[in-house]
């Protein structure tokens, strides 16, 4: 079954509060797609709408071309983890998965396999209250995988996992995507998303900022130098004449980023022009720096 997630013109309002505004993006099979944004950006709301837990105010969200509620036996198509704490504290891990299996028509023999796959078979008969946060996260992942779905939608699944668990989950998600599965995963751990995701969707204030490959987004900050100081922008024509690329920074009117010249050459140019600089430093590189640039720009312009 084709398993693309399509969000089309999605809007969600709670009274006077707009949580999501005209949001459109596509999550394709065969990739791990990271869903990024500051707290309150609308990530969890969007995931809830995709999963049919909230009704959209405008637009629609489709999985394999239909709303979640229209999927026959949805557990066999979509696995989700939104809240690892949503387990009865007195119910054992095995009983929790057994209840889900019976409710969704999944073969009970898959319970043991799911517990084994996420590495908590040894804790199958412990009550949920006795499980650590990391083990409850793994139990939630077992529930998501129980029906052998082609789509995974996971909200902050790395929470509570130790470093070994994070590496394990990275491998599981990549393996799932490599087998043709569709993965949408939110996280605030930018370094881990850079190591795990193939593509990222970045939102803020419920609006789309970027839908782009991880390597492309991370490369936007690679090798650049931040220049800042009163009158520093007078250097821009000369920098460009020397072959540098200059991009104005959103956070301050005097700052800009230079690619193609090293800090020493820029400093010499500023000295010769009599321009005092308060910052002349290589930028951080990678997904975290690019994410901060995007979201800072949005806050400054908003």
UniProtKB/TrEMBL annotation:
Signal peptide: none annotated. Pfam families: ABC_tran (PF00005). Coiled coil: none annotated. Residues 5-230 form the ABC transporter domain. The keyword Metal-binding does not apply. One of its GO terms (molecular function) is ATP hydrolysis activity. It comes from the Bacteria. Keywords: ATP-binding, Nucleotide-binding, Transport. SUPFAM superfamilies: P-loop containing nucleoside triphosphate hydrolases. Belongs to the ABC transporter superfamily. This is ABC-2 type transport system ATP-binding protein.
